[in-house]
Amino acid sequence: MTATSGAGADRDSRILIRRYHFAMAVPFGIDILTSAVYAAINARPLTLVPLAAGSIVFLLFGVGIGAWRLFRPIELFLEGDGDFAAVEPAITSLPRRSATLVACLYGPLLLIRLLAARYEYNFGVTIEVSAPIDAICSFFVATGFNFVLTFFVVSAYLDRLCSYLFDRHGVNIGAFPGTFRHKIGLAVLFASFAGMILLAGDIASYEGTRLLREASLDLTASVVAAATTYYWISRALTRPIGRLDRGMARVADGDLDVRLPVTSDDEVGRAISGFNQMIDGLAERRYLRDTFGKYVSESVAAQILGDRQRRGRVAASLDEATLMFVDIEGFTTLSETLPPGEVANILNTYLGTVVPAIERHGGVVNSFIGDGLFASFNLPLPIKGHAVAAIRSALEIQKLVGDAAFAAGARLRVRIGINTGPVISLTIGPENRLQHTLLGDAVNVASRVEQLNKRFGSGILATESTVQAAGPGFPCVRLGETDVRGHRGEVVVYRIDPA
Question: 2, 266, 288, 361: least surrounded by Cβ within 10 Å?
Fold first, then answer.
């Protein structure tokens, strides 16, 4: 970490610490604002002095010290001291513990106000005494409001804190003791009944002008409280959902590099954690397919990985396919005259030319055999017109290799043999060493036909079964019948010429 980045991290950490204390001050700021409204409605501006003084004292000493103790383990981690697993419980429980702290301090503050008004101990300022029922209702509603408000204010702060920890330290919370249902229920119950309880207390306690004034004050306070609570609830609960929605949209566009911070300890947090695990699995699957595709055809790799029930095996099948063997003419002699590094360079350039030409026409490279290779069309991946595809691929390979420039000024010429017939596609080998292969007489014939190019001095030979399956459209010359070692009967071969 550079000095600049280290200084930036320290600054960001200090800002996060201050924001937590600001979040804890929100309920007391609202309390002072409410006190000011109370003083204005009752035309007693001096009552704001003792009310605000009580809030400030409890804020500075009570909440300040309590919040410092609650946040201290997290602060130490932000400063680079401690293990995330040890501090994680303090992070996930921060909204609940902070709300409990504020409620435990605000309750006594409100009780002191009520008792001070009743015993006329108000710093020389006259404050109206509340009726017992109204006082009890106000006590529970105000304490409950501060608990709910603090819970969601700190939950919104937790979203920012966890995002920072994820971006800066690469950590995410993995414990989910909370429930989204309970959080929503807490907010809905308070919003539904707080105003009703205050109004009921007013009706049971007052009448006439006092009732109208108290009811107006309580209704105004209820509306402001509902709006304030809604704002913080929306920030605390909807931001993680919106982030998850945007992450899913990126994945739908093919971006598997997206990872999301887990910022809540409930079902939403668990869903985001599962989202990250899902993306890790998809990325690993893509990596396996890409890596596996370097050893077998990527399309075959995708097929194997897509069917877990077969445990890495391609389904055995019997079907007609067109087989193609490709070899470099005179490569053994060439390799004996060149250094090994140049031989490897030539082979890699050659295969980098041939393999894409096969795959462009729907073929699958089954294996490399020295400087040659074996490819198939229609197995294991079905394609229409497989004989046509094989001939077109052969003609393209012949042209590309003939035009290519290789290391040491080497010029290469390929020999290609093509045959069409029934083939068995299967996976062989023990569980820890599998290989996909094609078996059948048609494979043997294709291999022998490639070698017949030496006899006929040709570049591409195809059997009659391939020419008939491909149909007209390719210049070819019938060379006659010939025997093929390992095959019963004669085989008619054709020379395929460039168009």
Answer: 2
